[in-house]
Amino acid sequence: MLNVVALVSGGGTNLQAIIDAIANGTITNTKISAVISNNYGVYALERAANAGIDAKVVSPKDYENRATFNDALLETINSYNPDLIVLAGFLVVIPEKMIEQYENKIINIHPSLIPSFCGTGYYGLKVHEAALERGVKITGATVHYVDKGTDTGPIIMQKAVEVKEGDTPKILQQRVMEEAEWKILPAAINMIANK
Q: CB 3.0–4.6 Å: which of 25, 47, 173, 180 could bond 159 by disulfide?
C-alpha cells in the first residue's frame, strides 16, 4: 500500500482528483495518510477532512525564519512515514534536505508541457498567461519528479491540451486542469503504486 502525503496551498482541485480516483478505483494500492498546507483556511483542508484524511497546517508565518519552517515541515511529513509526497498545487520552495531525504519520492504537477513555461516564477495563472502571450496552439500538463531545480526533475507523464480561439488565462487554466492535470496526476500515482 503506497502511503501518500499530499502538500497543498489552495483550493485542492488536484487533491480532490486524487481522492476521487482512490475512491473509484482508478488509483489502487494507495492511501493518503495526510494533507499538509502552508496556508490556513484553504479549501483543500476541508476536502481532506471531508474524506477523513488527517489535515495539518505548517505555515511559514508561525516560524521565525525559513530554516525553522523547513525543519517543521519536514518533521511533520516524516511523522507520516510517506512512500510518496505529492505536490498538489504547493507553492513553496521544497527544502534541499527534504529533496535529498525523499529522492525520487516527491512528484509535482505543473500546468504546462515542460520544458515550456516552467521554472522560477511560472506557477498558477502566470503559466497560462505566458502560453497565451507566446501564441502556442498546444499546452498541457506534466507530472515530474522533484529534484533540486525548479521543474527540472525527470518527467513521468505529460498530456497535451489544445489552446482555443478566445481563451483567457482562466479558461485555459480550467481546461488544462480538467483535460490533463486531473487525469495524469492520478495516473502517475497509480503507476508508482503498482510498479
A: 180
Residue 128 catalytic?
Answer: no
Per-residue model confidence as pLDDT tens digits over 153-194: 999 999 999 999 999 999 999 999 999 999 999 999 999 999
Average pLDDT over residues 109-138: 96
d(CA 27, CA 190): 5
- Spatial distance between the Cα atoms of 47 and 15, rounded to a whole number of angstroms: 8
CA distance readout (Å), 30 to 1, 100, 111, 187, 191: 5, 23, 24, 12, 11
pTM exceeding the 0.90 threshold for the entire prediction: yes
Q: Cβ distance 36 to 6 under 8 Å?
A: yes
Q: What angle do CA 77, 61, 128 make, to 5 degrees?
A: 80
* Separation between Cα atoms, residue 22 and residue 28, nearest integer Å: 6
| Residue 14 pLDDT | 97
